[in-house]
Structure formats: C-alpha cells, structure tokens
Design goal:
The chain is an alpha/beta fold. The protein is built from twelve helices and twelve strands. Helices cover 33% and strands 21% of the residues. Iron/sulfur cluster binds next to loops.
Length: 319
C-alpha cells in the first residue's frame, strides 16, 4: 500500500467514558483511515474496539478528542458524516426490520436521503444487492427467511448504496460459518479495491486481520498499544501484549515452536496496571520496571509506520 498524505476519516486522541465517575473505556485513541486501505483493530473482548467504532459512528459520545473528515473537524450530527461513513455489524439480522424485505431495507437509505423515485430506488437496490451476490429471489425475502451470509451481504449492500467513503465493520464475520466468512471477506476486499473504500475492520481473529488488512492496530485496556503494517504486526510484534496475543493463536504448522515467546505474569498482583497511572499491561507484563508504572508509554515510531507504546519493546530476534 502506497504512502498517502491525508487520511479520509480520523479519530484523534479519542476518549469515551460511560458515565461520570467511571474509568475511561477508551483513552486517547487515534485512528486514521486512508482511501483504499483496511485498518484492522484487534484485541481481546472488552478492550475498547467496539467502543472506538461506536464513537467513530457517533453512537456513543466522545468525552475527549475529535473526528475529522478530509482534514476538517466534523460533528456526528453533520449530514456529510452520515452519508460518508457507514457501518456493518456482527449480527446483520438484528439490524434489519424483521417485517420488511431485504430489498426494502436496502432501498431505505435512498429514501431517507431523498434520492430517486420509488421505482428508481427499487432498481438501484436490486442492482446493489446483485453486486454483492444477493439474487432478486432472495432480495424479496425477510431477514429471517435467508441465511446469515445472505443477510450480511444485504447489510453490506445497504451500507454501500449511498457510495460512502468509509465503512466501519464491527466483527462482521464472527457470527458466520467459516466457509461463509471467507466469501464475505473476499467481498469486502473487492469493495476496497473497486470503490477505494477506507475501512475499519474490527476482529478478535488475528488470522482474519492478517489476511485482509493493510495495517493493524492492537488495543489493550482502552488504548492502542501497537500499530503498523499488517505483516509486521503479524510476524514481528514488538509490544509484549501483541506477542502474547499472537502466541495464543493455535498454529497448524507442526514444526513451529509451541513455546510462548513471553510468559505473562499471573497471580502476582503486586502491580495493578488499571489503577496505577502507567502502562495498563504492567499487571501481566514480564518486562515491567518501575518506569512502566509511573506514566503511560506514548506510541513511538520504532521503524517507519510501526509504532509501539512500550518502554521495553520485545526483541523479535529472540525466537
Ligand atoms: S511499558 Fe513496561 S509494562 Fe508496559 S508493556 Fe512495555 S515493558 Fe511491559
């Protein structure tokens, strides 16, 4: 992927707090989405991935930071944001009206934005559905009358019918069978190439992210701890949490060394990273020092486009 100067859509230093007195669910997270590029956002359940996505979609308010579209600040209430940024979610059936056909639901954004006559909207919706592999015979059915894969294809058609520039995908394949997952991933990759869409792809599956995405950002406890080119993060992770995350993925390579490269601490509990002001991985990190618990490490560039928030990054040559 070529270096690009200006991202289409960004979250800058974004923070989200669910209620006063609560700890921040997301702290100072920055996300940059470029035309024709897919950014994978990975991390364990509850790390803040979906909250980040929801903040970028305006579904939860930011307690700090801002969104920009083409370099200028944008409010979640602005029409240009709603037209430019669309989303697909894990359970597409839940996001459709169960009483309406897929065709009617896919045509709905055109009606909301005042585009075309009823006949024209139907024709455009059918064309959009056909483009993502949903036949007219399927399109006239309700969500509960088609498979999960067909439903997710229709959700993609509904998200792209207004020709957005950005697609936010929150765990879009995790509820699907493996064979269907591959088809949906292929479809997303095609859309990225054909339409130049910028995508945020959220997943807990590192294999899926490595195969689909151009860049990867790793989140832990509400912060981005590492980001860079997807192959670099997959093959040469430098943050101890990213290394532990990679080591937890089962390997099909029987010659691979099964020993983890780092051993996370357990049961010591002498440092509570969530309560102290420093690194939030300190509680589990085998490389923790007093510096780690004094102040949170900033994302620093270790090599071009590879940033790590760690005072003592993992050395990949060890294995
Ligand atoms: S900053 Fe310190 S505690 Fe945090 S991941 Fe790096 S070495 Fe571990």
């Amino acid at each position: 992927m070529t270096e690009q100067k200006q991202p289409i859509f960004t979250l800058e230093n974004g923070s989200v707090r669910y209620g006063s007195g609560q700890p921040e669910a997301v702290s100072g997270v920055s996300v940059r989405l470029y035309r024709g590029e897919i950014l994978g956002l990975v991390g364990e359940s509850g790390c803040g991935k979906s909250t980040t996505a929801r903040a970028m979609l305006g579904l939860v308010p930011l307690s700090g930071g801002r969104l920009t579209l083409h370099g200028t600040p944008v409010s979640v209430h602005e029409r240009r944001l709603r037209a430019s940024v669309q989303a697909i979610f894990q359970n597409p059936a839940a996001s459709f009206n169960p009483k309406r056909s897929l065709l009617d639901s896919v045509a709905e954004p055109l009606r909301v934005h005042g585009q075309g006559t009823s006949k024209e909207r139907r024709a455009r919706a059918l064309a959009e559905l056909d483009r993502v592999g949903v036949t007219e015979q399927m399109a006239v059915r309700r969500p509960n009358e088609v498979s999960g894969g067909q439903c997710q294809r229709a959700a993609i058609a509904r998200a792209t019918i207004l020709r957005p520039e950005v697609l936010v995908c929150d765990e879009p394949v995790s509820a699907l069978d493996v064979s269907i997952q591959a088809q949906i991933l292929e479809l997303l990759a095609e859309l990225r190439t054909e339409q130049g869409l910028a995508m945020l792809f959220i997943s807990h599956d590192l294999g899926v992210v490595a195969s689909l995405c151009d860049r990867t950002a790793v989140m832990y406890a509400g912060r981005v701890v590492e980001q860079g080119a997807a192959p670099d993060i997959a093959n040469r992770p430098r943050h101890p949490y990213s290394v532990a995350l990679q080591d937890a993925v089962p390997s099909l390579d029987l010659t691979a060394d099964p020993a983890p490269r780092i051993r996370t601490r357990t049961g010591t509990d002498d440092v509570d990273g969530r309560l102290l002001p420093g690194c939030r991985f300190a509680e589990l990190c085998p490389s923790v020092t007093s510096a780690c618990t004094a102040a949170p490490p900033a994302l620093d560039e270790l090599s071009p486009r590879h940033e790590v928030a760690c005072y003592h990054p993992f050395e990949p040559a060890v294995r």
